[in-house]
Every structure is written in C-alpha cells, then in structure tokens.
Amino acid sequence: MRWFVLLLVLVPGFALANDWDALSEPGALAIMRHALAPGTGDPANLTIGDCSTQRNLDDRGRAQARAIGSAMKARGIRFDAVLSSQWCRTRETAELLDLGPVNDAPSLNSFFQDASTRDEQTAETRELISRTDGRVLLVTHQVNISALAGRGTRSGEVLVIRPTDGGIEVLGSILIEP
Questions:
Q1: Is 136 among the domain residues?
Q2: Residue 28 near residue 162 (C-beta atoms within 8 A)
C-alpha cells in the first residue's frame, strides 16, 4: 500500500480512473474537453479566428495537453482523424496533443452562450461520428460533451465513447492532471 501511495505522489499525471483499454473496444472513439483555460465562458465579442477575443489555455493547460498527447503516444495510441471546435483553446489543445492533423468541425463549437443551437449541433455531431472511419478524437467543450454523452467532464478529460442506436455509450474516461 505504501508503494501505491508513493506512486500517486511521485508520478505526475498518474490517475486511478484511466481506462486506456476502452480505446481498443470495437467502435470506440475519444471525445475530449479542451485543456485548462482559466475562467468560464467567453467574452461577448468572441470572434472565431481571433484568439484575443476568447478565453485561452494557460501554461498549465498547454502542459496538460502535451502530457495527454505524450501519454497516448507512449501507449501507441494514434488517431486517423483529430476534429476540433474552431475555438482557439480547443484548436490549441488538439495541436499540442500532436496526435494527427487537426481539422475544424463547427458542430463541436461551444453553445455555452447560445443554447438555442444545442440540439442542432448535437445532432450534427452524432452524424459526424456516424460517418467517420477509423480511430477518431474530437476536441470540444463541456456543454457539447454533456449534451452528447449525458455526463460532464473536467478540463482535459477524455471520454471514450461508442455510438449506439439510441445515443452514446460511455466506455471509460482518461484524465491526466498537469
């Protein structure tokens, strides 16, 4: 027991609930909440493509994104496609993971400040998932993940999910704290 506690203290990024094996389940894909970005929501003048108008990753968030990518690469996990919200904090997270080329997926954009698009964007994301082949990683926002998977996530948390006839099945979770 002492060694276990020592491992928890000495090994950065070690977490108890990391379900790495869930990624090898048939039909599994990963959906991630962007890494640490201080604050909540975005300024009213948010402009896609202009990071100065958005809430962005801090140094801890950048370190967290790199650590998650490194942990996945160390386990031989690669993705055929990495899809991201167009928000700067999600794009930067996806790029810092360094797990494959990053492509925009507007249905992954946050609807935190305008929930009227929630159902439409969630349906578009389900459609996007249904037509993707191979191993896919989606990088998005808390509200999008909650609407899609029915549960919340912490900053930088990866849910391993699988589409079902009626929705989404959560197979596991991976979280590496900075």
A1: yes
A2: yes
